[in-house]
Every structure is written in structure tokens, then in C-alpha cells.
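Postdoc handover notes: sequence design on the structure in folder B. Input C-alpha cells:
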């Protein structure tokens, strides 16, 4: 369905493995788990295909990143310069635009593994070099760049950072990151930084004075702001401070699942009232609901329906946040290293090993859109949620 160009390239094929870079054993299968089917009718399949053909399909958070097979390799691999991208899997996604942070450890594990500012430039440069050698994806910098993806039969990657921690206390680094292609940046990850409080902090002090300076600079230069991992007060402060709409690239509703990782109604409403968009997350063991004891596409889409009813269809999108390989193992590795797991606390549940129907990027957006078709949403509303709403914000902010 609307597959993109793929010529067989695998990451760093131009180098010699275990000489120029360390070769890890990667979980590179596309069909890692049993095949999932929505059991769409022929007419429904045709409707899904029509949407993919005629409308922009935007994933507000997904990853071409491939998780190592061995748990012990995950953290060393994430800190390595040469992390592999699953070009074949992304080519099968049918997606036109992906907000991609390359899973290189820039913003999530900086404080714990010793990454420095210069490492950010190295990591981005290595990724961009690899991208130059293939035909499936390309780096986008402007709204117009993104609109070319469908015609080119490629996937436009919008370079993003999960958090702004790497800024430390230097606002000019926003400009430098922009110069190196970053077009969307989160304010915090789960823990606090010099800008504000992350969602696992017991006391949320809100946006700092430095954080306000960063928001102003991001507005000035034309960079999208993401509050997916911010604390509630910090989120509200960012929304109020920003002149531009603010995004939650991958989130869910706390009213359905009471954990810090989900967002309360007042924050969701504030985001929408400012013109922002909330991308519905499908990272394992996040967007659960009381009616779905295991994590499946159905629990994820319960969050979609709740938020769409709360803020309106014009302010929802899709941010699956999927990988190739064992996402749960990756979560555990990061939580164990950071010494936190509070983002998933607050509810008792049996851990799901993956999200049924949303296991990796090759199927995530297809199945989320297919679910909407199956549940009788109009083409107009599906097109908005599939990418139209996000593209509207992008057009306003990216200059």
C-alpha cells in the first residue's frame, strides 16, 4: 500500500563492519510478532488506500531505529555513533512524513552516559551521511520539503530532539541545532532540566526563566515545540509562553489511564485552544485503558476517541512511537539506567510485550487509519487526523 522507494540499502554499507564501526546483532525482522489483521472489507481497504494516495500521512513520532537482539547491547548501542536505520521497514509504512529523533541518545540519556554538546553534532552528522547513501528517506527542513514526499515516493524525515537538555544554559544552541537541521524539539524528557520539569518529578516548578528564553528563540527561528514529556505545569507554561501552537507528538489521556505519561484534560484542552495537535502514542504499556487489560490497537484508539471528543477532530494526530525490535526491552534499559519508572506508575497492569496491531512503523499508521475506516469515520476527518492537522501547524511554524 503506497510503498516508498527502496533499493536494498542497509545502514553503513559503504563501511567495513567491525573495522570502521562495531557491528551489533540487530533485531531487524519486519514480522517479529504474529501478523495482525483488522479484517477490513474490500471496500474498506480501498478507502484506506484512497486516503494514503490523496492525503499527507504524518507520523508525529516514529523511529527507523533497530533495537539490538541482546538486552546487554542496548545502552552501548544507543550511545554508539553508528546506529542502524531500517530503510526497508520504513519504505513499507506508506507514511509521507516522520518526526524522527534517530534514537541516538542525544536527549534521553545525555546526563547519564557522558554525552557532550559536540557529540550531538557527530551523531547527527553520521546519521545524515548514511541517509545520503540511500533513496528511501530524505531530510526535510521546510513545509514545502515535506509536501514533496508523496510525489517522490519517499519518506520525509523531520529531524527532532526528544528534549532540550543538551542546551544546558546556552540559548544560542537553539540556532545551532536549527542550522544542523533540527525542526522540532521537546522541552524536557522525563526528568527536569534547565528549562523546566519533566513528567516524573514530584514537584513541577514550571517553565524556568531560561526555558522562556528558549521558547521565544524557538518561535523566532521557526522550530516546533513538543511537550510530550513535560510535567503538567511546565506544559501549561510552555503553551502560554509560546506565540506558536505547541505539539504533543506522542501522548494519551490521563482520564483513561492515570499515569504521569498521559496528559490531564486541562493540558489537552490548553494545547488545542492554542491551535496545537496531540499525537496519539502507541509505545508499549503507555496508552492502556481499564477496558483493555493488554495493550492493543483498540486501547490506543480509545485514547484517540476520548481526546478527539474532548478537543475536537482538528487537534488530534498520530504519534505511534514505534521501533523495529523489542521496544519493551529498550524501555527497561532506559528506565534502569535513569533509575526511574515513574512515567508508567499509578495503575496496576500486566506488562504487554508489544502492542498488538502497532508493533513497528511498517504497520502502525496503516492500522491506525484502517481502524478509523473500520469504525466509520468520514474520509474528511480521517485525513485531518492522518496528517492534515499536523501539516497545518507545520506550515504555520516552519519558515
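Designed sequence:
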Amino acid at each position: 500500500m503506497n510503498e516508498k522507494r527502496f533499493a536494498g540499502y542497509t545502514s553503513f554499507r559503504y563501511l567495513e563492519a567491525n573495522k570502521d564501526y562495531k557491528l551489533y546483532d540487530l533485531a531487524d525482522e519486519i514480522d517479529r510478532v504474529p501478523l495482525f489483521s483488522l479484517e477490513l472489507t474490500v471496500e474498506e481497504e480501498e478507502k484506506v488506500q484512497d486516503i494514503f494516495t490523496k492525503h499527507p500521512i504524518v507520523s508525529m513520532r516514529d523511529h527507523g531505529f533497530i533495537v539490538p537482539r541482546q538486552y546487554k547491547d542496548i545502552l552501548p548501542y544507543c550511545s554508539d555513533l553508528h546506529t542502524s536505520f531500517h530503510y526497508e521497514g520504513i519504505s513499507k509504512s506508506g507514511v509521507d512524513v516522520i518526526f524522527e529523533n534517530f534514537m541516538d541518545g542525544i536527549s534521553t540519556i545525555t546526563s547519564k552516559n557522558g554525552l557532550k554538546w559536540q557529540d550531538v553534532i557527530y551523531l547527527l552528522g553520521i546519521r545524515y551521511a548514511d541517509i545520503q547513501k540511500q533513496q528511501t528517506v530524505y531530510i526535510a527542513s521546510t513545509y514545502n520539503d515535506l509536501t514533496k514526499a508523496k510525489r517522490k515516493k519517499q519518506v520525509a524525515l523531520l529531524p527532532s530532539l526528544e528534549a532540550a537538555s543538551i542546551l544546558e544554559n546556552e540559548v544560542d544552541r537553539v540556532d545551532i541545532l536549527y542550522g544542523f537541521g533540527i525542526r522540532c524539539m521537546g522541552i524536557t524528557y522525563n526528568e527536569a532540566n534547565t528549562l523546566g520539569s519533566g513528567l516524573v518529578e514530584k514537584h513541577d516548578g514550571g517553565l524556568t526563566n531560561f526555558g522562556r528564553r528558549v521558547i521565544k528563540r524557538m518561535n523566532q527561528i521557526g522550530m516546533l515545540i513538543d511537550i510530550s514529556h513535560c510535567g503538567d505545569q511546565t506544559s501549561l507554561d510552555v503553551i502560554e509562553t509560546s506565540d506558536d501552537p505547541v505539539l504533543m507528538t506522542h501522548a494519551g489521556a490521563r482520564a483513561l489511564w492515570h499515569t504521569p505519561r498521559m496528559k490531564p484534560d486541562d493540558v489537552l484542552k490548553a494545547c488545542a485552544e492554542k491551535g496545537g495537535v496531540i499525537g496519539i502514542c502507541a509505545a508499549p504499556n503507555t496508552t492502556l485503558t481499564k477496558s483493555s487489560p493488554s495493550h492493543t490497537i483498540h486501547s490506543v484508539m480509545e485514547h484517540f476517541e476520548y481526546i478527539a471528543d474532548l478537543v475536537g477532530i482538528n487537534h488530534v494526530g498520530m504519534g505511534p512511537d514505534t521501533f523495529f525490535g523489542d521496544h519493551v526491552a529498550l524501555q527497561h534499559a532506559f528506565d534502569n539506567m535513569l533509575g526511574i519508572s515513574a512515567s508508567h506508575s499509578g495503575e496496576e497492569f500486566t506488562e504487554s510485550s508489544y502492542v498488538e496491531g502497532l508493533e513497528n512503523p511498517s504497520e502502525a499508521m496503516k492500522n491506525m487509519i484502517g481502524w478509523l475506516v473500520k469504525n466509520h469515520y468520514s474520509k474528511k476527518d480521517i485525513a485531518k487526523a492522518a496528517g492534515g492537522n499536523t501539516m497545518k501547524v507545520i506550515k504555520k511554524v516552519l519558515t
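Context for whoever picks this up: The longest strand covers residues 155-161. Don't rerun without checking with the PI first.
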